[in-house]
Amino acid sequence: MDGLECVKRMNDESKPKVDLILMDLVMPNMSGMDAMKTLRDAGYSKDALPIVAVTANALPEEREACMEAGFNEFVTKPLKKDGLVDICKRFIFEVVD
Questions:
Q1: pTM for the predicted model, two decimal places
Q2: How far apart are alpha carbons 40 and 49 in whole angstroms?
Q3: 3-81 topology per CATH
Q4: Are strands 21-24 and 73-76 parallel, antiparallel or unpaired?
Q5: Domains of the chain: which residue ranges?
Q6: Which of these, 46, 49, 55, 67, lies nearest to 6 by C-alpha position?
Q7: Residue by residue, what is the 3-state secondary structure of 1-44?
Q8: Contacts for 80 with CB less than 8 Å, ≥ 6 apart
Q9: pLDDT at 97 over 50
Q10: What is the Cα–Cα distance from 68 to 62, expressed in whole angstroms?
């Protein structure tokens, strides 16, 4: 799914709601940054819909730009299983101690 397809999917009320988006920053038709901004402008707040930037670019400036733009988190590729589990725990699952 590219950025434009993601935005269309989120605006389709006949589709089930999602709890978390892992958004690649480099996609055809619409970048991950533009897709995230479009969703935020459409009313999907950081609390209501966590969006995590996924990229191969590990530069600190890229992370800072993503966080300032409205992403909830920033992770680099390759995303390992433990990293994905940590993201899900943080943004989806209620962790019981």
A1: 0.91
A2: 9
A3: Rossmann fold (3.40.50)
A4: unpaired
A5: 3-81
A6: 49
A7: CCHHHHHHHHHCCCCCCCCCEEEECCCCCCCHHHHHHHHHHCCC
A8: none
A9: no
A10: 10
pLDDT at res. 96: 46
DSSP label of 50: -
Structural tokens at position 51: 């969006």
Backbone CA torsion sign across 55, 59, 61, 63:
positive
For the chain, what percent of residues have pLDDT higher than 90? 90
pLDDT, one tens digit per residue, over 16-31 is: 999 999 999 999 999 9
pLDDT 10s digits, 24-81: 999 999 999 999 999 999 999 999 999 999 999 889 999 999 999 999 999 999 999 9
Asked if 3 contacts 30 with a C-beta cutoff of 8 angstroms, the reply is yes
